[in-house]
């Protein structure tokens, strides 16, 4: 999923840093893991699926960069705490946490099961809190750190069939602002990124609406339809890539992000502003 090894950031920018990326084995998370490793960080890639993290780590290590794998379900607070303690013990520090793990699917709210609601809210919102809370003592103890969470733009307006994910991501935005203020004295910067449409396999799967719903199917469309949407629906004229999001993560993780906290950065080629997110 790497677009180019050339980076706009200077080589060695994150040398000596340790970054933990949840959901870092595929899609946008993989793009983030790859760029942070390219810039010199040791990246701990975490996911529920061992295959995905192992493959991602192998790719990074094959390029002479540094990464390791952990299996982790962000819904399990005790497991998160244990994994974070193990990383801190093994590597001595955690400079960057990227809360990227997410679950999502289109489903009518009228019939959404309690467990389906719980699954998405627990991954997206509880998972972000569990991981942030777990790294807090490590970051506070070392004099600071950067937490960067993944939000979305769909909750800026109504987005049918996605009550669970939009409610959870609105919670992520609130958490970002609150923890930014609460943890600023410890020099922990807390920011979020709201990505626009990035056609990774996971997003395509999650964003295939039921046929009868009337919700536009942006991702499963034929190639020429996707090209047309990029031309007409995204002001900057192209679909996003994992590297677009990774670049913002790298900026926030770098010294350039030193005076930034509590901010939510929309990185979407202007899409939601021009369409209200549709
Ligand atoms: C209705 C569904 C469903 C669907 C699952 N469920 N899929 N209900 N429609 N399509 C219900 C199940 O029936 C079950 O409820 C409950 O959800 C939990 O399902 P499980 O499969 O048992 O859970 P689990 O294995 O933990 O899987 C979690 C998941 C899954 C969220 C359901 O989709 C997942 O792991 N996703 C991770 C990957 C992912 O979604 N990535 C895309 C993120 S894209 P019952 O009642 O039957 O027990 C994204 C992009 C944002 O976030 C930006 C956009 C611009």
Task: Provide an overview of this structure.
This protein is α/β, with parallel strands linked by helices and 278 residues long. Helix 1 crosses helix 8 (242-253). It has one domain: NAD(P)-binding Rossmann-like Domain (Rossmann fold), CATH 3.40.50. The longest helix is centred in the middle third of the chain and has 29 residues, at 114-142. The protein is globular and about 50 Å long. The mean pLDDT is 94. Strands 3-2-1-4-5-6-7 form a seven-stranded parallel sheet, with helices on both faces. It is built from nine helices and seven strands. The two termini are 26 Å apart. Hexanoyl-coenzyme A is lined by residues 102-105, 107, 113, 115-116, 119-120, 123, 152, 195, 197, 202-203, 206.
Nutshell version of this structure?
The protein is of the alpha/beta class and 278 residues long. It has nine helices and seven strands.
The global form is: globular
CATH-defined superfamily = NAD(P)-binding Rossmann-like Domain
How much strand content do the residues show?
A: 5-15%
- Note the run of SSEs as H and E: EHEHEHEHEHEHHHEH
CATH architecture: 3-Layer(aba) Sandwich
Number of domains: 1
Number of contiguous helices = 9
State the name of the first-level CATH class: Alpha Beta
Helix content: 40-55%
Each distinct ligand? hexanoyl-coenzyme A
Which ranges are low-confidence, i.e. pLDDT below 50, for 5 or more consecutive residues?
none
The number of strands is: 7
Q: What is the end-to-end distance?
A: 26 Å
Largest sheet: 7 strands, parallel
Could you say what the CATH topology is called?
Rossmann fold
In which order are the strands of the major sheet placed?
A: 3-2-1-4-5-6-7
Could you report the average pLDDT, rounded to the nearest whole number? 94
Protein name: Putative oxidoreductase
Family: Belongs to the short-chain dehydrogenases/reductases (SDR) family.
Keywords: NADP, Oxidoreductase
GO molecular function, one term: 2,4-dienoyl-CoA reductase (NADPH) activity
